[in-house]
Amino acid sequence: MERHNKYTLLGFKALQRAAAKVSVTARKNNLKIPIWKNGRIVYEIPEIITEPGATLDAK
Predict the structure, then answer these.
(1) Distance (Å, whole) CA 45 – CA 34
(2) Whole-angstrom Cα distance, residue 4 to residue 31?
(3) CA 29 to CA 45: how far, in whole Å?
(4) Is residue 2 very low, low, confident or very high in pLDDT (cuts 50, 70, 90)?
(5) Cα separation of 26 and 34, whole Å?
(6) Are 11 and 19 spatial neighbours (Cβ–Cβ below 8 Å)?
(7) Quick check: helix, strand or coil at residue 36?
């Protein structure tokens, strides 16, 4: 398995944090966000995550 550059991992984590914040904002304001499904773009409101271990701030 190829080793990843530490900057690649930092960038990936930053993109994940940004995506999480966008979905929270969209959910609060009842906005639709584009999601790629089955080879096309679908606009939908993100679902509320009800799993106990799925918090955004969990470390």
Answers:
(1) 9
(2) 35
(3) 10
(4) low
(5) 11
(6) no
(7) strand
In terms of phi and psi (left: phi > 0; alpha: psi -120 to 50; beta: otherwise), the region of 30 is left
Task: Name residue, tokens 């470390």.
Answer: 59
Q: What is the DSSP letter of 32?
A: -
Supply the pLDDT for residue 40.
Answer: 95
Sequence spans of domains, the chain: 6-44
pTM above 0.70, yes or no: no
| Local structure of residue 55 (DSSP, 8 states) | -
* Identity at 34, one-letter amino acid code: P
Beta strands in the chain (DSSP E): 33-37, 40-44
Q: Which amino acid is at 26?
A: A
